[in-house]
Amino acid sequence: MSASAQQNGASANGFLKNGDSVPDVASVPNPNPTITGAWTVDKVLDTIPTGKPAQGSSSPVEYFHILERLKTTKREGWRRFGIYKGESVSDHMYRMSMMSMLAPPALASRLDINKCIKMCLIHDMAEAIVGDITPVDGVAKPEKSRREATTMDFITQGLLGKVAGGAVGTEIRAIWQEYEDSETLDSLYVHDIDKMELLLQMVEYEKRGQGKLDLGEFSYVKTKIVLDEVKAWAEELMKEREEFWGGQNHVHGEDGVAGGVAPKKREMQDAYYKKD
What we know:
metal-binding; hydrolase; YfbR/HDDC2; HD_domain
C-alpha cells in the first residue's frame, strides 16, 4: 500500500470504506470537560469507548485494559504550549522508575529501591481515569485528591479485589497512599524523582524547539525538591539549561514572579504543591 493511501485511511485489505479516514485511536482525550455535576468514577467509565470494565472478576484482564489508558493519556501541561503529541503518563512513569534505580550510594543504602520503583510505576495510576490535572486547571487540591483516591479504590478493590486473593491490589493501594502521604524517605525520594523527570523533559523539549519554545514556568518544581542528592541533579540540569539559552531572555520559574511567571499562575502552583 502506498504512503499516500495510508495517509488517506485506505486499507490494504479494504476494511475501511472508500474516503473514510482512520479515527484517532492512539490517544485518550481528557475526560474531565465532558463530566457534568459532581465528578465520579462511574461518569468517566461511561465515556470509555472500549467499554466499561467489569468489576469483581478473578482475572486481571480488565485491569490490564485500564492500564492502556496510561499509555495513551498525554501529560496535559505540555499541551498549553502546543506540544500535542508529547509524552504520555506512562512515558513519564517509566523514566521515573529507571531514574529511581540510580540513587547515589549514600542515599540508596537508606532506601527500599524495589519499593521506590513500584511507587514510580503506581503514583500516577489514577490518571488512567482521572486524567492529568495540572496546577492551572482550576481543580482544588482536596477535590483532586478525592478523585484520585476513589479511583484507586475502584482499581484496587473493584478490578483487583478478587485477583490472587486481592493481595496485589492491596499492595498497590498501600504504596500509592504512602506516596500521597509523603512522610517516608522512599516517598520523598519518588516525589523528587517526579519533579526531576519533569525538569528533564522541559529542557529536552526546549532544546528540540531550538530556542522558540520557553517552558521555564515548569522550573518552579525545582524549588520543591527536598533531598540534597536530587537537588544536585537539578542544579546540574539547570546549568545545562542556562548554557542552552545563552544570553537570550527566558523564563525562570524557580524565581517565581521575579523570573517571569504571572502572579496568578504562581499562586496556582503554590496551591497545587502545598502539603496538607
